[in-house]
What we know:
With 292 residues, the protein is α+β, with helices and mostly antiparallel strands. The chain folds into two domains: 12-132 and 277-284, no CATH class; 145-266, no CATH class. The protein has four helices and 13 strands. The chain has helices at 68-75, 107-122, 210-221, 258-266; strands spanning 12-14, 27-32, 50-51, 60-67, 84-85, 94-100, 125-140, 148-149, 191-196, 201-208, 225-227, 235-241, 268-284. Strands 1, 5, 7, 11 and 13 form a five-stranded mixed beta sheet that branches. Helix 1 packs across helix 2 (107-122). The protein starts with 11 loop residues before the first strand and ends in an 8-residue tail after the last strand.
Amino acid sequence: MQCRSARTSxxxxxxxxxxxxxxxxxxxxxxPSSPSLPDGRIVVGMAEPVGGPGSSDPGRIRYxxxxxxxxxxxxxxxxxxxxxxxxxxxxxxxxxxxxxMPPGTSKEQFEAMLQNLLAERFQLKAHRETKEVRGYxxxxxxxxxxxxxxxxxxxxxxxxxxxxxxxxxxxxALGSDGFAKRPLVPxxxxxxxxxxxxxxxxxxxxxxxxEALAGSLVSFVKLPVIDATxxxxxxxxxxxxxxxxxxxxxxxxxxxxxxxxxxxQLGLKLERRQGTETTLVVDHIEKKPTAN
Length: 292
């Protein structure tokens, strides 16, 4: 069997085996979990994973809370939930997933392992559908980019996740801008995270590529976004806006919409482009996994 590129209307049956190679975790455990955390917060999609390829603990990964749809997104390298088509309960079935693998496992190998795990434990059968759609290209505005290039901090570890204080604990009260008073990403840490406030949304990036920024915008415009900026450096940036259709609290100085915010705050803009969108269509999946 040879790897084939997806084309319009081409259906590629996926059973967790990527291009005739088998890849499995050394040890894997899946247990039911709850989106309700002890401090009262509700997880949407997943809580931050610990370890995995590119982290300080590459031989082990732990998802403390993750729903099936987000696990599918991670396994098939899809950026947004609307790209997975399947039963509604994919959003509401949460699990704790722990697995070990060789420390040198690549991102692609890790994804193949997740695919196999879903096929073995949830009896997943799915296929991809690729179609032409209208989308966006992220480009540089007329005045040029308005972002600071990331400067390496000697001795700092770059891959990894920042730890933010949970809501309801000291240091998490709302500021005048409507966002929780959480610290910025620690210096030397590579991170792109989303903060939801009462007046809008804030994306904070440190040591981030424009490809990563473009990918993070997909969930807000609900269409493919490609990086066409030509910028190859890593940047620090803060983007604050009101997503289209979002219900936010009234403000004397409301945040701009996404398109205006990109131009005013980062010196970038979104242009309409024709592109392709690939969805993962779930043909069969069990609601509960087989025993560990």
